[in-house]
Design brief:
This protein folds into 3 domains: 5-209, P-loop containing nucleotide triphosphate hydrolases (Rossmann fold, 3-Layer(aba) Sandwich), CATH 3.40.50.300; 214-369, 3-Layer(aba) Sandwich (Rossmann fold); 398-439, no CATH class. The chain has helices at residues 5-9, 14-23, 30-40, 56-67, 84-97, 114-123, 132-140, 157-162, 166-174, 191-200, 211-214, 231-241, 254-266, 280-291, 302-305, 325-332, 353-363, 379-396, 400-410, 416-428; strands at 46-49, 77-80, 105-108, 127-130, 151-154, 181-186, 205-208, 219-225, 247-250, 271-274, 297-300, 315-318, 342-348, 367-369. It has a 7-stranded parallel β-sheet. It is an alpha/beta fold.
C-alpha cells in the first residue's frame, strides 16, 4: 500500500501527494486528520488547538493549496503569524506543498524592503504570510487589498496575544472580505483568543487534540532535581554525554542567558546566545549558524526564541522551570518534530517540584526523573573541547598571576609536554575533587 494512502483518504489530490512524497511525509498527524477534510469541503470556520511541531502548517497549508485558484489576480489567502522567522518558514512550507500548481506565495514582515513588497503585491500575490504589524502597515498605505480574500489563518494566536498584536489582528480582520473562512490555530486557548473566535468567526468547528496530544508524542520528557548551583555542571555533563549534542537551552532572564552562554564558551563548547539586547542582524546570523549546526548549543530567553523552528533539533533544555504550562508547551514543541525523536530536559530545584507536577498534570504529559551521566575522564572524548578552551583562553584572557609559576615549571627538569600532561590530568581527574571551576 502507498505510504501516503492516509492523505489520499482525506481527499488530498495526487499533485499535493507528490509534493508530500518529495518532502518525506509518511502519514497524516492527528491535527491533519481532523482538519484537512473539514477545510477541503464546506464553508465552516475552524478553531484548532495544536502545538508547534504537530504538523499544523500542513493542516491548513494543504487545503489552501487545494482550494485556491490559479491566476486569480488578487490576494486569496492571508496567514498571520507572530514573528518574521515564522513568516518565512510558513511561506516556504506552503510553497513546498503546492506541487505543480501555480500559486504565488510571499512572506511579509518588518525589517525587510517595503519597495520589494510593493512590487510583489502589484504583480499579483495569491497567499500572503505576514506579521500583524507589517500587514497592517501595508493595508493603511493602500498597498494590500484584502477585500477579496477567501481565507484568513491566525497561526499561533496565543503568541500573537502574548506579544501584544491582538489589536492589530482585530483591525486586520475588520478590513477583510466578510464571506471569507477564518482558521485559528493556537497551542493554548486563553479567554481573549476565544473572544476573537466568537466575535469574528461564524459557527466555527472546534478541534481539540486530547491532552496527551498537546505535547509532541516523539518527545521524551525528563527532569532532574538539582540545586541552582548544580545546574551548570549538570548541563555540561548532559552535553558531554551526547556525541553530537544539538540543543536549545532556555533561561528565564537575559542575564542568565548571557552568563550560561559565556561559561559554555569558556569551557570550549560551541555555544551562542540570543536575548532582547541582541540586534536583529546579529540574531539572524546566530540563528543561521545554529540551523547549519555550526553552533551546537543555543541559549535563549522565551521572547528571543519565538519563531525559531529547527526541524531536526534533538534537545530542548529548560535551565529554569517555566512559570506555566503554556510556556513549557511552547518550549518543548521545538523538538521531536517531523517524525524525529527529541528530548525535553527540565532542571528543577526541590522547591519547584510541586509546580512541575502541576504542569505535568495539566498537560497530561509523561515525565521521568533522570539520573545524570557519570563524569567521564577520558581525554579522547574531551580533547577537542579542551583545545578550544585553551585557545580561547590564550586569546581572550590575561594570565599574569600564573605566568611566573608557568615559567618556573617549564624551566624545571621535566619536559614541557610532561608538565602540560600533568596539568591536563589535574584538570580532568584530580581537579574534580575541587570542582572543575577552571574549565
Amino acid at each position: 500500500m502507498n505510504g501516503l494512502e492516509g492523505f489520499k483518504n482525506l481527499g488530498v489530490s495526487e499533485n499535493v501527494i507528490g509534493a508530500l512524497r518529495k518532502k518525506g511525509f509518511l502519514k497524516p498527524t492527528e491535527i491533519q486528520e481532523k482538519t484537512i477534510p473539514i477545510l477541503l469541503s464546506g464553508k465552516t470556520d475552524v478553531v484548532a488547538q495544536a502545538q508547534t511541531g504537530t504538523g499544523k502548517t500542513a493542516a491548513f497549508g494543504i487545503p489552501l493549496v487545494e482550494n485556491l485558484k490559479e491566476g486569480a489576480g488578487h490576494v486569496q489567502a492571508l496567514v498571520l503569524v507572530p514573528t518574521r522567522e515564522l513568516a518565512i518558514q510558513v511561506a516556504q512550507e506552503i510553497n513546498s506543498l503546492r506541487g505543480r500548481k501555480k500559486l504565488f506565495i510571499v512572506a511579509i514582515y518588518g525589517g525587510s524592503s517595503l519597495e520589494q513588497q510593493f512590487r510583489w503585491l502589484k504583480t499579483g500575490v495569491d497567499i500572503v504570510v505576514g506579521t500583524p504589524g507589517r500587514v497592517l502597515d501595508l493595508i493603511r498605505r493602500g498597498r494590500l487589498d484584502l477585500g477579496h480574500v477567501s481565507y484568513v489563518v491566525l497561526d499561533e494566536a496565543d503568541e500573537m496575544l502574548n506579544m501584544g498584536f491582538i489589536e492589530d489582528v482585530e483591525e486586520i480582520l475588520q478590513s477583510t472580505n466578510k464571506g471569507k473562512r477564518t482558521l485559528l490555530f493556537s497551542a493554548t486557548m486563553p479567554q481573549r483568543i476565544l473572544g476573537i473566535a466568537k466575535k469574528y468567526m461564524k459557527g466555527h468547528e472546534f478541534i481539540r487534540i486530547n491532552k496527551q496530544g498537546l505535547t509532541v508524542s516523539l518527545t521524551n520528557q525528563v527532569y532532574f532535581v538539582l540545586s541552582s548551583s548544580e545546574k551548570f555542571e549538570a548541563l555540561c555533563k548532559l552535553i558531554d554525554s551526547e556525541k553530537d549534542f544539538f540543543g536549545l537551552v532556555f533561561c528565564r532572564t537575559k542575564a542568565d542567558v548571557a552568563g550560561v552562554a559565556d561559561k559554555l564558551v569558556r569551557r570550549g563548547y560551541s555555544a551562542e546566545a540570543i536575548h532582547g539586547d541582541v540586534s536583529q542582524y546579529q540574531r539572524e546570523r546566530i540563528l543561521d549558524r545554529f540551523r547549519k549546526k555550526r553552533t551546537s548549543v543555543l541559549v535563549a530567553t522565551d521572547v528571543a526564541a519565538r519563531g525559531i523552528d529547527i526541524i531536526d533539533l534533538a534537545c530542548v533544555v529548560n535551565y529554569n522551570l517555566p512559570q506555566n504550562p503554556e510556556v513549557y508547551l511552547h518550549r518543548i514543541g521545538r523538538t521531536g518534530r517531523a517524525g524525529k525523536s527529541g528530548t525535553a530536559i527540565t532542571f528543577v530545584t526541590p522547591q519547584e517540584i510541586k509546580r512541575l507536577y502541576l504542569i505535568r498534570d495539566f498537560l497530561g504529559a509523561s515525565m521521568t526523573r533522570g539520573k545524570l551521566p557519570k563524569e567521564n575522564g577520558s581525554l579522547g572524548l574531551e580533547k577537542n573541547r579542551i583545545k578550544t578552551y585553551i585557545e580561547n583562553s590564550v586569546k581572550l584572557y590575561k594570565h599574569a598571576e600564573y605566568t611566573a609559576l608557568a615559567k618556573e615549571l617549564l624551566d624545571g627538569e621535566s619536559r614541557a609536554e610532561d608538565v602540560v600532561a600533568a596539568l591536563l590530568r589535574y584538570l580532568l581527574e584530580d581537579g574534580q575533587k575541587v570542582r572543575r571551576s577552571s574549565l
